[in-house]
């Protein structure tokens, strides 16, 4: 059966990595049809909106979307792919490939996954003026000062809901079952017992349904130290949105940088795939952006679409290119172009 992938190439240097990644997928003859929703500045020009109905329909009609990084007006498509499609679990693997320049003296065997809650926490983006809260009688738990007396300032709402936490923690438990049967939960539950504490409580409730998975937990600052000092101790981890955003970038630094940071965002009935990195505006037009994050995200996508063997072969081909080391982009110590790295992966497929 034909599968359909909607491709949104993204901004700045992102299309330079997405383009050859999609060309590589096309060359595999997998019975995938590609559609190209028009979003961002081009859509403003052609349709008068950065995210026209036509683009939304192509995303909805596709089995999945492959998304390049965004910096500007195409960001509204990302909002739709996350909040519109309910993709609540952002899976961000960190795996060391021999040949990649790691920040660690001994990176061998580093292989863990951050499951980042993808829809809530501070990402509600409900912010405002502190003045607007002054009649609510709120008091700071630490300074005991009424919020009304804090003077000029702004607030942001951090919301941790039962539904949002349960579904992502369940997702992480299920993922743990496919790996080492270990799950680490992290949040700032000591200082924020009502919100981050709730996240941990829900994990502890669910743990009884997964007796075959060993669950442990660390406060997020302690977790960050452990992640850097001894990443091999972790397998599947789960955390609220903002910690996951920050720590997944930090984690990428352990294994060669953002150029390798793949991700997939999964919901109940939709998933989309995107690299975790930004649009690299500093290297636009040079054909040197590292396509690895896109290639690995594409491997995750193939797995999601049911092309499990092709997914594994693509992943192994990337690993082989790093092991050989002669076709790497400058960010990982090589001299190859984006296209050169993709060609090398295709040759080893
Ligand atoms: C990511 C990015 C996004 C985020 C931005 C582009 C909204 O940093 O996917 O990690 O903060 O989630
Ligand atoms: Mn990020």
Description:
With 349 residues, the chain is of the alpha/beta class. Helix content is 38%, strand content 16%. The chain contains 11 helices and 12 strands. The protein has helices at 14-26, 40-47, 53-61, 75-84, 162-177, 196-207, 220-229, 241-254, 292-305, 308-324, 338-347, and strands at 3-8, 32-35, 64-67, 89-95, 111-117, 127-129, 154-156, 182-187, 214-219, 236-239, 264-266, 271-274. The chain has a 10-stranded mixed β-sheet with strand order 2-1-3-12-11-4-5-10-8-9, with helices on both faces. It has a two-stranded antiparallel ribbon with strand order 6-7. Helix 1 (14-26) packs parallel to helix 11, helix 5 (162-177) crosses helix 6 (196-207) and helix 7 packs parallel to helix 8 (241-254). The longest helix is centred in the C-terminal third of the chain and has 17 residues, at 308-324. It is globular and about 65 Å long. The two termini are 23 Å apart. The relative contact order is 0.16. The model has no long low-confidence stretch (mean pLDDT 97). The structure holds 3-isopropylmalic acid and manganese (II) ion. The site of manganese (II) ion has 3 residues, from helix 8.
